[in-house]
Design goal:
145 residues, alpha/beta, Dihydrofolate Reductase, subunit A, four-stranded parallel β-sheet, globular
Length: 145
C-alpha cells in the first residue's frame, strides 16, 4: 500500500474536498490535504464563509465549471478526496477521468455511501487491480467517455 500511495501522491498537485470531508480531516487533526506546499487544496462549500487553515482555498462556485477550468491549466493530476456529493456533481459533468479505490475486508453495516446517483450510467474500464497485505483489494478504473 505504501508503494501505491507514494506513486499516487507524486502524480497529483491538487486535492478537491467537499465540506464534510474537509471538516472530518480537520477534526482528526490533519491539515485537510494542505500539509504540502506542492499540493493545492480546494474545499467546495455553499455554507462555509471562510477556511481557517492556511494553504486551502474555499470554492463557492459551481464545482463542475471550476474543475473544467482547472483541468485546462498546466499541472499534474487532481484528486477528489471523499465527498460523495461533490463526486456526484463531477460525474454528472463528465470531468472525472479515473476512479481508484481500496476495498477493505470489513463489513460495516452503516456508513456514508462512496457514490451517490450520478443521474447517468458511468462506464468504467479496469486498469489495475491487486490484492494488498491484509486482504485489501486496490482497483483503478478509467472512466469511459
Amino acid at each position: 500500500m505504501n508503494a501505491i500511495t507514494k506513486k499516487y501522491w507524486s502524480s497529483i498537485d491538487t486535492i478537491l474536498m467537499g465540506r464534510k470531508t474537509w471538516a472530518d480531516a480537520i477534526r482528526r487533526g490533519g491539515s485537510g490535504g494542505s500539509g504540502s506546499s506542492k499540493i493545492r487544496t480546494y474545499v467546495f462549500s455553499r455554507t462555509l464563509k471562510k477556511l481557517d487553515v492556511p494553504g486551502a482555498e474555499l470554492v463557492r462556485d459551481d464545482a463542475a465549471d471550476f474543475v473544467h477550468d482547472l483541468k485546462s491549466e498546466k499541472g499534474k493530476g487532481i484528486c477528489v478526496m471523499g465527498g460523495a456529493e461533490l463526486a456526484r456533481s463531477l460525474f454528472e459533468a463528465n470531468v472525472i477521468d479515473e476512479v481508484g479505490m481500496n476495498v477493505h475486508p470489513v463489513l460495516l453495516g452503516v456508513g456514508v455511501p462512496m457514490f451517490l446517483d450520478p443521474r447517468h450510467r458511468v462506464a468504467l474500464e479496469l486498469i489495475e487491480s491487486r490484492t494488498i497485505d491484509g486482504g485489501c483489494v486496490y482497483s483503478l478504473y478509467q472512466v469511459k467517455q
